């Protein structure tokens, strides 16, 4: 057996502790599988004397993660602190600059600095791996870069934020409104320190941008992801979608078209009996479509200590084996800048409108939709105690840009009493 692979782990929170536990529990198995012993030399976190439920006494301590990354006895730097910049980026750059491989779960850092970090890694010959950054325990990056390497990928989609899926499925199961279930998720510790990252679709957008770059061979382009969060999804939307045979999911989709790469992360109605529709709680699902393989579906835990640490250690094991794959699946210099394209794919839409309950209001809305080429498939006005009439419209498939123009016109009629809510209905 060769010399041990010595880890330096920065960040001893949920994921960091999980990684320590796996190294301590499965040392023999990992050595047998990789042909190399994997050990921990040193660790770092903000607070040294915190009881983390694992024995850290055998490891050196560094207050400064950059110093940890540079230590002589650290062969591989494991970044599990989080944050797109600050110490996570500084320490990752220090390790890569020194030619040391880095494994990280930090989607925020990679979605913004992925190209620069990949270029740095390749310039020094260091590996940079981030399986845990996308969909926690699901090995979707490995699937794309290895198992599906011979496929032209046409579409990557899925549910990539467990917290949003928990909130949406709990709303449906309990019949409680968004605010109440958001508070419940907060009390259970599910939300990121900045909850907008979850409910605003940003965290899932980071993950989609990473998958999209790998799938289509482009530079990672988080700014190109069209984002819509789940904050405006009401319990009424969920009930009405269910009555029509749909469930609402925060669905990410990246596809390559002739116009460029479309990336979107938004609440979407999906058939209730489809694999996505049946996804409960914090589970994630990634759907990949390739020209030879067709469609494959990967489902599993998208977060949590065990699943995320499992993905981190999968990367560590690959490095121990000497596997050398560029961070985004092909050399960074060959990744083309992403050519952004707004979604032009026609799909049906669910519209929630609130109208003044006056003669002709509904007719004016229907007229504006018609003038913009939007055809109504279904329409219903609900009982209402007050002056505002809640109206649900389902359109026939139409281009999102045509609908956006139409909704501007609908708002300009003066008969709507709140901003219209438009949700896409998934195209097969
Ligand atoms: N939790 C999850 O399920 C998943 C997390 N991830 C990603 O994994 C990474 C870690 O997440 P998670 O474990 O949940 O985060 P936690 O908040 O649980 O832990 C963060 C750790 O980093 C340490 N830390 C923070 N800032 C510094 C600093 N300036 N210097 C040294 N140490 C620092 C903290 O120290 P201290 O403990 O002393 O405060 C803590 O140990 C993030 O990038 C996250 O996005 C990815 C997928 C799933
Ligand atoms: N906040 C993320 C954690 C895992 O990336 C989620 O809810 O999925």
From TrEMBL:
Active site: 207 (proton donor)
CDD domains hit by this protein: ACT_HSDH-Hom
InterPro entries: ACT-like_dom_sf, ACT_dom, Asp/hSer_DH_NAD-bd, HDH, HDH_cat, NAD(P)-bd_dom_sf
Annotated GO biological process: methionine biosynthetic process; threonine biosynthetic process
Listed GO MF terms: homoserine dehydrogenase activity; NADP binding
Residues the record lists as binding NADPH: 107
UniProt: L-homoserine binding residues: 192
Domain ACT: 350-423
EC number: 1.1.1.3
Pfam family, one: ACT
Sorted UniProt keywords: Amino-acid biosynthesis, Methionine biosynthesis, NADP, Oxidoreductase, Threonine biosynthesis
Pathway assignment: Amino-acid biosynthesis; L-methionine biosynthesis via de novo pathway; L-homoserine from L-aspartate: step 3/3; Amino-acid biosynthesis; L-threonine biosynthesis; L-threonine from L-aspartate: step 3/5
Top-tier EC class: oxidoreductase
Family: Belongs to the homoserine dehydrogenase family.
Protein name, as recorded: Homoserine dehydrogenase
Record organism: Jannaschia seohaensis
């Amino acid at each position: 057996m060769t010399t041990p692979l010595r880890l330096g782990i920065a960040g001893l929170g949920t994921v960091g502790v999980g990684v320590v536990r796996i190294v301590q529990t499965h040392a023999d198995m990992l050595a047998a599988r990789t042909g190399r012993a994997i050990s921990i030399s040193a660790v770092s976190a903000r607070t040294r004397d915190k009881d983390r439920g694992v024995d850290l006494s055998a490891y050196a301590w560094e207050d400064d993660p950059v110093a940890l990354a540079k230590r002589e006895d650290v062969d591989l730097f494991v970044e599990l602190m989080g944050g797109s910049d600050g110490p996570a980026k500084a320490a990752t750059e220090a390790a890569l600059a020194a030619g040391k491989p880095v494994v990280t779960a930090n989607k925020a850092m990679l979605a913004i600095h992925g190209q620069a970090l990949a270029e740095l890694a390749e310039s020094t010959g260091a590996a940079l791996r981030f399986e845990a950054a996308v969909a926690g325990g699901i090995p979707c990056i490995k699937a794309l870069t290895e198992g599906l390497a011979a496929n032209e990928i046409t579409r990557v989609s899925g549910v990539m934020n467990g917290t949003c899926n928990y909130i949406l499925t709990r709303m449906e199961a309990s019949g409680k409104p968004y605010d109440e279930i958001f508070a419940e998720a907060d009390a259970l510790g599910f939300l990121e320190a900045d909850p907008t990252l979850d409910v605003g679709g940003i965290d899932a957008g980071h993950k989609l941008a990473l998958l999209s770059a790998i799938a289509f061979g482009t530079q990672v382009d988080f700014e190109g992801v069209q984002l819509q969060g789940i904050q405006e999804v009401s319990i009424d939307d969920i009930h009405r979608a269910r009555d029509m045979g749909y469930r609402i999911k925060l669905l990410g989709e990246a596809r390559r078209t002739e116009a460029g790469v479309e990336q979107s992360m938004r609440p979407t109605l999906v058939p209730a009996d489809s694999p996505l529709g049946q996804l409960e709680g914090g589970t994630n699902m990634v759907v990949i479509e390739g020209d030879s393989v067709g469609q494959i579906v990967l489902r599993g835990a998208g977060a949590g200590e065990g699943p995320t640490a499992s993905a981190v250690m999968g990367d560590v094991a690959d490095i121990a084996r000497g596997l050398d794959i560029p961070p985004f699946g092909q050399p960074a210099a060959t990744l083309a800048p992403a050519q952004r394209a707004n979604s032009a794919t026609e799909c049906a839409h669910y519209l929630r409108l609130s109208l003044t309950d006056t003669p002709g209001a509904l007719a004016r809305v229907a007229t504006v939709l018609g003038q913009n080429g939007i055809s109504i498939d279904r329409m219903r006005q609900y009982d209402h105690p007050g002056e505002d009439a809640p109206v649900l419209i389902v359109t026939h498939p139409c281009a999102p840009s045509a609908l956006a123009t139409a909704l501007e016109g609908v708002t300009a009629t003066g008969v709507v009493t709140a901003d219209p809510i438009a949700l896409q209905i998934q195209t097969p």
